[in-house]
Amino acid sequence: MIDLAQLYGFHDRTVLVTGGGRGIGRAVCELFTAAGARVAVSDIDAAGAGAVAAMLPGAVAYPCDVSDEGSVTATTAQVVRDFGRLDAVVHVAAIFPKRDFLSMTAAQWDALHAVNTRGTFLVMREAIKAMKAGARGGAIVNVASTSGERASVTNNANYGASKAAVINLTRSMAIETAGDGIRINAVLPGGVATEGAKAATEQMKADGLSLGGPMTGPGRMPLGRVADPHEIAAACLFLAADAASYITGVSLPVDGGFLVS
Ligand SMILES: NC(=O)c1ccc[n+]([C@@H]2O[C@H](COP(=O)([O-])OP(=O)(O)OC[C@H]3O[C@@H](n4cnc5c(N)ncnc54)[C@H](O)[C@@H]3O)[C@@H](O)[C@H]2O)c1
């Protein structure tokens, strides 16, 4: 008899979600809680993480800056101490300011990579260490972007480079952790209706930049709309679940068909 709860459920499992305070991360926290997980909601926005944890049974908030080595190390260790185990990490936290490439400063370049690239390295490093120590295997899902595979919109080169790094870190470490039963995959959203996306678009307009590029062209979003955050969360749940037990190192587009258009 096939047991769907075993394939897709997370009963008695602990899942750490970075960037869980709003947007896609909040939807991930909601879906994993519905699937039975005890969720550690981490975010640099302590109030946001606290509000999400407060509405989810069993969830606990952890203020954490993924760009800060001490913060990531301490948070991961605290989650393991509090819950006794770490079964999955969904790494969602990132920033995506739109910048004109030619006027972008080195400090602006570095600030984005501190969060998106170094943050992914730190979150993965600490998660893998904790999972190896637990000796139960585990799953890591990195939320990257179609921008990491293909130029999608203009004024976004720095971000695209960081998400290409996330995709490559996913592949590199998938082969190095498979022997420990740790699977590492990435989800590549296209456009998603979130607070962060709205704020980035408004800031871009305030900076006098316009949104152009392939994703804005006619027919380039075959499903005809941007995603709801829960549609990204559903892919994260699948890749972290036992249903995906033979999947590692993949980058799954959840993009309404953009990459094949
Ligand atoms: N929204 C989209 O259209 C879209 C498209 C492709 C990929 N993505 C990716 O999806 C993920 C989530 O995007 P979103 O739209 O939900 O963004 P969002 O801005 O709405 O939420 C991001 C969360 O990450 C947190 N965060 C930011 N910097 C952090 C740090 N240094 N440490 C810890 N937490 C930090 C924020 O406080 C926020 O709660 C990101 O990785 C983003 O790159 C989003």
What does the secondary structure layout of this molecule look like, with pairings?
Elements: H1 4-8, E1 14-18, H2 23-34, E2 38-43, H3 46-54, E3 60-63, H4 69-83, E4 88-91, H5 106-134, E5 138-143, H6 157-177, E6 182-189, H7 195-206, H8 229-240, E7 251-254
Parallel strand pairs: 1-2, 1-4, 2-3, 4-5, 5-6, 6-7
Helix pairs in contact: 2-8, 4-5, 5-6
The structure holds nicotinamide-adenine-dinucleotide.
Nicotinamide-adenine-dinucleotide (NAD) binds next to helix 2, helix 5 and helix 7.
Organism: Sphingomonas yantingensis
GO molecular function: 3-oxoacyl-[acyl-carrier-protein] reductase (NADPH) activity
EC number: 1.1.1.100
Could you explain how this protein is built, in words?
The protein is of the alpha/beta class. It has one domain (4-253): Rossmann fold (3-Layer(aba) Sandwich). It is 44% helix and 14% strand. It has helices spanning 4-8, 23-34, 46-54, 69-83, 106-134, 157-177, 195-206, 229-240, and strands at 14-18, 38-43, 60-63, 88-91, 138-143, 182-189, 251-254. A 7-stranded parallel beta sheet has the order 3-2-1-4-5-6-7, with helices on both faces. Strand 5 (138-143), helix 6 and strand 6 (182-189) form a beta-alpha-beta unit. Helix 2 (23-34) crosses helix 8 (229-240), helix 4 runs parallel beside helix 5 (106-134) and helix 5 (106-134) packs parallel to helix 6 (157-177). The longest helix has 29 residues, at 106-134. The protein is globular and about 50 Å long. It starts with a helix and ends in a 7-residue tail after the last strand. The mean pLDDT is 97. Bound molecules: nicotinamide-adenine-dinucleotide. One of its GO terms (molecular function) is 3-oxoacyl-[acyl-carrier-protein] reductase (NADPH) activity. This is 3-oxoacyl-[acyl-carrier protein] reductase. Keywords: Oxidoreductase.
